[in-house]
Predict the 3D structure of the following.
Amino acid sequence: MLPLSVTSRRFSWSKRTGLLYAQGMTAIVDQPPAPPAFQVVLYPNRSLGSRGFALLMGSIVLVSVVVGAGFALAGAWPVTGFFGLDVLLIYLAFRWNFRDSSRADFIRLDEHGLSVRRIMPNGESLEWQFETAWVQVVVEKRRLLLRSHGKELVIGPYLTGAERASLADALKAAIREHRAASGAA
């Protein structure tokens, strides 16, 4: 069957012709890939968009300039440098937060098993494969884990408690159905 990377940008599946296109090359495949039994994409919530960020930073700069000018007119001009430093630190903190919010977890359950692909903030992609007969979905106090053979993987550390519980229930149900369908119960 087709590898998981078929869904990446380097590949495209044509339903009309039944061909798999990969960077200018064509591969003929007998059948289209079976749809996954379970598939979800997890990413951190980013409630402040780029326009909101620009407005927030603009208002912070405006307040800092006005208050700094007041201090400078009162003769305490060295204070204005600290207002500039505050603006710089706030900007860097938001940029760091935006960078971390670019990570994502892709969880997929298909005939090959359970796979988790994580895209890190630097663009690096990591992938783990789990045999559905052995994997356990565990919800701890503040973590959602996939355990198998003494190893564990934390997924969705940025999810809320309700989101973790909902994802765990859905994943457990999908794995249970997959085990029943494959006879590995």
